[in-house]
Amino acid sequence: MILLGIETSCDETAAALVDDHRQIIGQCLLSQLEDHAAFGGVVPEIAARVHLEHLDRLIAKLLKDTGRTLGQLDGIAATAGPGLIGGVLVGAMTAKAIALVHDLPFLAVNHLEAHALTARLTDDVAFPYLLLLVSGGHCQLLAVEGVGTYRRLGTTIDDALGEAFDKVGKMLGLGYPGGPAVERTARAGDPTRFPLPRPLRGKPGCDFSFSGLKTAVRQCIDKLPPGPVSATDAADLCAAFQVAAGDVLADRCGHALDRFREITGKNGPLVVAGGVAANGYLRQRLAQLGVPLIAPPLALCTDNAAMVAWAGLERLRLGQRDGLDFRPRPRWPLDPDAPPAVGGGVKA
Ligand code: KG4
Ligand code: ZN
Prior knowledge:
- By secondary structure, the chain is α/β, with parallel strands linked by helices.
- It contains eleven helices and ten strands.
- The strands form two sheets. A five-stranded mixed beta sheet has the order 3-2-1-4-5, sandwiched between helices. Strands 8-7-6-9-10 form a five-stranded mixed beta sheet, sandwiched between helices.
- Helix 9 links the parallel strand 9 and strand 10.
- Helix 5 crosses helix 6 and helix 7 runs antiparallel to helix 8.
- It is globular and about 65 Å long.
- The C terminus is likely disordered.
């Protein structure tokens, strides 16, 4: 069974072919970083236009590179939400058109489910597992009980962790996206020089909060001498921020592992997914929680189409498919029954 996957929900235009032996037959990915860099963040309208401009040729290149034709496929999967709706529409409509012309099953994939199931593509992980999904738009802990069955144990009540990394990077003039730059800059830093808070650490539950941490970084910068932040100050601040984020993640995941044990009787494993899972320091912290840690290779942590093809394949082999009337969803929580996060803000 071979599926084509399409990802267009944020600033990556991507297409990939994946088979049911967990092989990534090929993938093509075009990052829009340069298109958005001048704005310090992703501009939805620009993102949608760039997806529209490139997606068809990217799919053609993927097929040429792998020597496949659309007629050889068993299904087409596209991210159909959550995400920036203009881009999602481009990907979903392209997939529907191919499915219609070639009479193939269409799979409307939840982008979060694609992140959630990636560890089954890379490491063949069995259900259930505890998932920490940390990206630019999401920060959640979920018990993954099966394809389509997710129980949210915690979520952020304000910012996602990737968003906080990006804002810290921006405040320090490190460019966009901030995550990789903050990690690089932190390597030369002293994490003890600036005292930063650990929001919600030690509190009951598994929710997250990062806006106070981000604000504390801002206040440290405001107390520095005027003008550009020096390399040493930037390194010390990045190191302090990253260690604080690591402390919070470790604490919240510890609580979630206890809860997961109550629900399933199992001691992990803990799976990480989403762009922030590319961070080596945070991975190392999570590896010390006393349960097996499964972290996909970096290129499959950040947005990609192989995870979308795989999520589609997991659903198709269970006999599921979606109608061509499926309406893409800008918001699409994995656990629709989850209560709102303590503190009110809901990011789904
Ligand atoms: O999953 P992703 O590619 O897109 C979505 O948000 O869905 O995640 C992108 C996020 C950005 O906020 C980026 O700064 C962050 O992941 N990120 C990192 C690292 N690499 C990417 N954050 C911390 N350390 C990294 N090495
Ligand atoms: Zn993502």
